[in-house]
Amino acid sequence: MGILDLFKKQKDETHHDFSLKWLEVDMHSHLIPGIDDGTKTLEESISLIKRLKSFGLRKIITTPHIMTEYFRNTPEIIRLGLQEVRFALEKEGIDIHIDAAAEYYMDEFFLEKVESGQELLTIKDNLVLVETGFMNKPHMMMEVFFSMEMNGYKPILAHPERYHYLIRDKKLLDDLLDREIYFQINLLSLTGFYSQPIKHFAEMLIDEKRVKLFGTDCHNQRYLDMLEGLGNSKYYETIQELDILNQTL
């Protein structure tokens, strides 16, 4: 056996088959075409959904951005897009349950929606997915969380591992955990897709059992290409043993 053959054998032995059957439900993605920075065409959406189904998922809850300055989506726009995707899946004979919620950007416009009683699209029951900018903490972050809770909603903070301000601010992290804000980690973070510091922060949250949900945050085929490398992560088996909420959605 040559050196190259030995290297290939060792590489093959460390490879893990990739599956999301254990997750059951992906609750964060951008698969309604043309309404945010996710899929551009219906054909692309169907291709991605078909591929996600092949990973073993039984359900997808796709979550278009609602962001006042960039993606002015409404429940009506999202529901129409979902209906279009469902019709196409049925036509193609792709049997997977797909629903839609939203990923809300936390700003004064979102706070106004909450306080004025406007409809919020939920992941399930009262669970609402929210995000912030990546660099700086929103000055009204705690006010928004308080208002959501007072109005009967349970916040899910999307991909907290990607927020540089949170990585730097241990007190804020502890404050959010004390408030029992649900943390949703992007599976891609564990592959190093975003950066090594983000990967390490995600691993720390997992080690401390602070993660309530996982999502693919799928936008395009590249996301799923990289996601297949998750099987080689040292955390791939660990996350399958966590007590998470995905399977209840």
Task: Walk me through what this model shows.
- The chain has 249 residues and is an alpha/beta fold.
- The protein has a single domain, classed as TIM Barrel, CATH 3.20.20.140.
- The strands form 2 sheets. Strands 3-5-6-7-8-9 form a 6-stranded parallel beta sheet. It has a 3-stranded parallel beta sheet with strand order 1-2-4.
- Helix 2 links the parallel strand 1 and strand 2.
- The chain is globular, with a radius of gyration of 19 Å.
- The N and C termini lie far apart (50 Å).
- About 4% of the residues have low confidence.
- Its EC number is 3.1.3.48.
- Keywords: Hydrolase.
- Belongs to the metallo-dependent hydrolases superfamily. CpsB/CapC family.
- InterPro entries: Caps_polysacc_synth_CpsB/CapC (IPR016667), Pol/histidinol_Pase-like (IPR016195).
- This is protein-tyrosine-phosphatase.
Q: What characteristics describe this protein?
A:
single chain; 249 residues; alpha/beta; TIM Barrel; six-stranded parallel sheet; three-stranded parallel sheet; 10 helices; 13% strand; globular
